[in-house]
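Structure representation:
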Amino acid sequence: MRPRLTLKHPGVYNDEQTRDASPRKLPVGHIRSSLTDRIVASLIYGPVAIIRSYNGVQPEIGPNAFVAETAALVGAVRVGAGSSIWYSATLRGDVDSITVGARTSIQDGCVLHCERGAPCVVGDDVTVGHNVTLHGCTVENGAVIGIGATVLNRAVIGAGAVVAAGALVTEGAVVPPGMVAMGVPAKAVREVTEAEKNRFRANAEHYVLLAQEFLADSA
């Protein structure tokens, strides 16, 4: 008979393979468990993030990363240190992998997925705004993806580039580093200004601090 999982706290769990071992800690709000365990946890503690394996591959969450209670991480997903995955975001690493670098924010309602042979790769210090879709693309360090934008398979967003809100970056398109792309389909229209660089950098730093506040608040 399988030992019963005891839920001491929403941030504490026992591995599927070692349920009789001492609980191991994840950042608060996370739980890896069976469907039954998640239901029990949600009844006791409220919503908990869905963090589940696929084909034997489990998501990896770096130190001081925050995953909101209603987010979902599935399969080959790696989240870097100090990053944040916000409410109702879904990262589904099934047909290929998803990598999120350090100090990057994946904001509320985002969808990250991949294509076979086209992983989704998001670099360090990236801001991905609310309700963005990233599919099998590469977003390099320090880039900003505006609210509601879509970036499709094998597109590349260069370092420090900005994709404007609502823009559509088509398959295989390249936004050069430090450029602003707008429209449907998105076209690079100008360079990012120094004032914009400072504002976007401050916003990225704000989300790193905000994630730590959320972790501390639920501890």
